[in-house]
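re: that complex we talked abt at group meeting.

here r the seqs, copy pasted straight from the sheet so there may be weird spacing, ignore it
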Amino acid sequence: MKKVIFFDRDDTLIKDVPYLNDPSKITLFPDTIDTLQKLKKSGYEFIIVTNQSGIARGLITDKELAAVHSKLQQIFADHDIHFLKIYHSPHMPDSNHPTRKPNPGMILEACNDFEIDKARSYMVGDKISDGQAGLNAGLKTFLLNESLSGCTSIKTLSELLEHIIQ
Ligand SMILES: [Mg+2]
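got the structure back, here u go
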């Protein structure tokens, strides 16, 4: 069984650029690579779950999103970090689609796709909806600079290390 950390994408792993459709605009945070390398050494695998309503809004094409995610995977792969999969939900905020966070659909889909030990897995994000998605999926959940009952608040990604790695 895999122990997995589910990450939100924007303002969690990379800086948020609204409706990012240009791979050259991907910017990591200073502690992103180091944190994931240490988590990997502790046996964690990684999955990204990202809401991308820009697709439903017609602001990003599937092809552009694929190019962004291909570049993102390449940037991390250069540091020997790999994602099991990147899930995205293309639906509008008012759709209440089961895959759109705060709903847990993407995480539940991942749990179908991979053998994941939920008891030893985590969700990490920056928005209340990320926190709700993690809790709705039954995961221990961390929120960056946000607070929500049931979630652990952290100020930087690297703070994960003191909570997760014993
Ligand atoms: Mg975010």
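couple things i noticed - Residues 62-77 form the longest helix (16 residues). The longest strand covers residues 44-51.
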